[in-house]
Structure formats: structure tokens, C-alpha cells
Specification:
6 strands, two-stranded parallel sheet, two-stranded antiparallel sheet, mainly alpha
Length: about 425
């Protein structure tokens, strides 16, 4: 976790004290369940809670023990025994380390997903507000980076809103899939610990029971979780790239808010660079990169190995912290995005009406021209306008081959900008509903 790209709420989920607190709760709830089954004394379960519930775990002490025993869970249990006293011998009865580690990891991933879902909600709110603000603001649509047909800036933002609505759904599904608990003992057979213990801990920790585990929770669940984060990150980058293109000097249809006193360059005082969007592009690359090792973690030896462990200690915090920061930054970027409708209109008109070429093509076919001939006639005039910077409508009006099919007024009727925007309300209703 890089402090520059870390928000405190997400970082807190991955702090050592938080991790040990979750470990304690798993162990304490399991001891409760064991006491209810008569496996350990009720007084022991009470002592564990009484001594450990308000404890601040000594991280330095745990690390000191781990340097000797070379095992993190054993080090924690040893320190817990120092806090609880003799009754601690009843803790961890029949459990294996993965019962604690995997259940803890999934608690952390669920909590992280809750924050990420809230982040996406903030992005959606900003997108919705700005989409309605520019619902009918015309601009040129581009395919391959080249002028195509008219659209609106509101539609661009509505497209992003729909995409992030799917992101919210995917994160919700990923949260549900990864939110399982396994307290099944060595190799997952429940030989040393009853399934009732797992059921009790699962409920107490807000998780679902893992239907079948080996010594670990299946890692396909985690692979899907991190793959989902990667998809969401790609959506972040898609929108960031759009903003970067729109801010190019030759386009300048929208740009990031430039605060008073902000500096765009150390050498060129005039610069106003899309640094936030570029930052989001870089962060998205990192989140996507974490998906590959998560996918590789699915493949483990027999009932378990620990090749996944070192990976998850890194990608769990890094992927969630990075995406949390990126989503928060994106929401602010959209909220303050500066939009230039006059430049949008200027660029829309830049090619002398060529954006209406398809309407003319269709009009010619409706009047009897074979499609191949209609395409040839329209393209011939379009290329003249493209190369010489002429008025496309005027060129069509004096082309005798075009005039065989269309009158001057019929040609002019195909240059109505409003025609291209007639279904904007329909699209908005699909995306945002009728409210």
C-alpha cells in the first residue's frame, strides 16, 4: 500500500491490529461453539472473551514470537495465551491455521467490497447529475477517433453510468461469492471439529458456510473477486481515456478542473494537463495486474499448499486500496469536470456537415437510387468537402447526379441536427428509469 494512493478507511481493513482482532473473534466464536457442544469448559470460553475482547494486541510481541516459531498463527495464539492465561489451552481446538487465515481474509475482502460498492455509488451519483446536465448538449460522435455522427455529451455520461451500474452488480456478486467461512480442520473433513462450530462462526462473522473445503477455501472464489476488481478498473480507465482525449488541445471539449494555484508543468507555465485521468490509467493497470496471480492461485497441490499465501498478502491490500483510491478520484473528477459546449458545437461543424452523410445516403436509396450508386455519389461529394474544406450540403445541391433524386429542400432536410437526438429521452429512460 503506497500512502500516496491510500485512503484511511480501506487501509484500516488491512492493518495488523485489524487482522489480529478478526483472528481473535474467529477463535473466540469457535470456542463458544465448542463450549456449547461440551468439548471445552464454558468458563474457558467466557475467559477468552473477558480477557481478549478489549485487548490491544502487541504486534511487536507477536512478531518476536514468530521469528522464533516461524508460524504466524502459532505466534498469535502464543500471545493470546499470554493475555488470556491458562484457559487459552482450549482455544483452537481441532482447528487448523487455514480455518483462521482464510476466514479472516474473506471477512476483509467482504469489508473491502462494501467500501468499493460505496465508491461506485459515488461515481454513479456524479455521472447521473452530469448526464442530465448535458443530456441534449450536442457533440460529434467518433469512431476510430474520426468524426462519425452527432451524439450528446449526456449520452456519453449515460453510457458510463450504465457501465458502472454493472460494476456495482459485479462487486455485489463478488462480495457474495467470496463471503464464505471454513472451520473444517485439517484437510477439511471435520474429523477434529464439528460442522456446528463452522456454522456458528460463519453466522457470527457475517459469512456463509463454505459447502466443501479442503484445508483451504477454494481459490476460484478469490480469482473471481480479483477478476471483478480488474473489470471495474478497466471501466475506470475507459472513462479516464475518454476525458484525456476530450482534453487534448485540438479538441478541448472537456477538461479536468484546474484549481487556483495548481501547476501543470515545472517548465511550461501555460500547461493544464489531464493528470488525474492519466493517474487513473496507471492505477487501473495495477489493479488488472493483480488478477493474473489470483487466477494462478486457483491451482494448488492436493488439499493445500501455501503458494497462494504470499500472493494474497500482497494483492489483497494492494488491489482493494488502489481501486478504492481510483474510484474516489474518478467521482471527484466527474463531479468537477469542466465542459465546453461551444467547442463541442465548433468541432461538430468542423467538417462542413459531413456528419450527416448517412442521412443523405439513405434519402437517396428511398428515392430509388441503388445503394452502391447512392454511396458513390455521397462519398464523392464528401471527399471533396473533406479535402477542400467545403460545404457538404452546398456540394450536394449542385451535383446533377444527386439532384436527379433529391431536390434542394430534400437535401437540406437531411442536415437537421435534431434528427440525431430524437431518441435521447428513450435512451435516458432505459438507463435511468422514468423518474
Amino acid at each position: 500500500m503506497i500512502p500516496r494512493y491510500t485512503r484511511p478507511e480501506m487501509a484500516a481493513i488491512w492493518e495488523a491490529q485489524t487482522r489480529f482482532r478478526i483472528w481473535f473473534e474467529i477463535e473466540a466464536h469457535a470456542t463458544d461453539a465448542l463450549a456449547a457442544l461440551g468439548v471445552v469448559p464454558t468458563e474457558a470460553a467466557r475467559a477468552v472473551w473477558a480477557k481478549g475482547k478489549g485487548a490491544i494486541f502487541d504486534i511487536a510481541r507477536i512478531e518476536e514470537i514468530e521469528r522464533e516459531v516461524k508460524h504466524d498463527v502459532v505466534a498469535f495464539l502464543t500471545h493470546l495465551a499470554e493475555i488470556v492465561g491458562p484457559q487459552a489451552r482450549f482455544v483452537h481446538q481441532g482447528m487448523t491455521s487455514s480455518d483462521v487465515l482464510d476466514t479472516c481474509l474473506n471477512v476483509q475482502l467482504v469489508r473491502a467490497a462494501d467500501l468499493l460498492i460505496a465508491d461506485v455509488e459515488a461515481v454513479l451519483a456524479a455521472l447521473k447529475r452530469r448526464a442530465f446536465e448535458f443530456k441534449t448538449t450536442p457533440m460529434v460522435g467518433r469512431s476510430h477517433g474520426i468524426h462519425a455522427e452527432p451524439t450528446t455529451f449526456g449520452l456519453k455520461l449515460a453510457y458510463a453510468y450504465a457501465e458502472f451500474s454493472r460494476a456495482r452488480d459485479r462487486l455485489t456478486a463478488a462480495r457474495r461469492e467470496v463471503g464464505t467461512c471454513a472451520i473444517s480442520g485439517s484437510v477439511g473433513t471435520f474429523a477434529q471439529v464439528a460442522p456446528a462450530v463452522e456454522a456458528h462462526v460463519s453466522k457470527a462473522m457475517g459469512l456463509m458456510v463454505e459447502p466443501i473445503s479442503t484445508q483451504i477455501i477454494p481459490r476460484d472464489r478469490h480469482a473471481m473477486y480479483f477478476a471483478t476488481l480488474a473489470v471495474v478498473a478497466s471501466s475506470v480507465e475507459r472513462l479516464a481515456i475518454e476525458i484525456r482525449h476530450l482534453q487534448r488541445t485540438e479538441v478541448l471539449e472537456a477538461e479536468e478542473y484546474f484549481a487556483p494555484g495548481q501547476k501543470g508543468s515545472s517548465s511550461m507555465p501555460h500547461k493544464r494537463n489531464p493528470v488525474l485521468s492519466e493517474n487513473l490509467t496507471g492505477l487501473a493497470r495495477m489493479v488488472r495486474a493483480y488478477a493474473i496471480p489470483a487466477l494462478e492461485n486457483v491451482v494448488l497441490w492436493h488439499e493445500r499448499d501455501i503458494s497462494h499465501s504470499s500472493v494474497e498478502r500482497m494483492i489483497g491490500p494492494d488491489a482493494t486500496v488502489t481501486l478504492d483510491f481510483a474510484l474516489h478520484r474518478l467521482a471527484g473528477l466527474i463531479d468537477k469536470l469542466v465542459v465546453y459546449p461551444q467547442n463541442m458545437r465548433k468541432n461538430l461543424d468542423r467538417l462542413g456537415g459531413l456528419v450527416h452523410s448517412q442521412r443523405v445516403l439513405l434519402a437517396l436509396t428511398q428515392k430509388g437510387a441503388p445503394r452502391e450508386e447512392a454511396y458513390r455519389l455521397v462519398q464523392r461529394n464528401a471527399m471533396r468537402a473533406w479535402d477542400a474544406g467545403g460545404d457538404f450540403q452546398a456540394l450536394l445541391a449542385v451535383d446533377p447526379d444527386v439532384r436527379k433524386y433529391l431536390s434542394e429542400s430534400e437535401i437540406a432536410a437531411n442536415f437537421d441536427l435534431g434528427y440525431h437526438l430524437k431518441e435521447v429521452d428513450t435512451i435516458f429512460a432505459r438507463v435511468f428509469g422514468t423518474t
